[in-house]
Amino acid sequence: MIYVAIEPADHQAFVLIRASANPNPERKPPMRVARAMLPEVLELLLDTAVEAGTC
What we know:
Number of strands: 3
Oligomer: single chain
């Protein structure tokens, strides 16, 4: 399982993503991601979790 928290960034073209294998991703430092890249980044996170056996 992977937990993801998504928040607005300081610019509307970006979001802040925190991901964790634990239920509290808000504790992790955020990644600043372009909104246009969000589907690819979420797919990458999911693929990584599946390969690690946490999903």
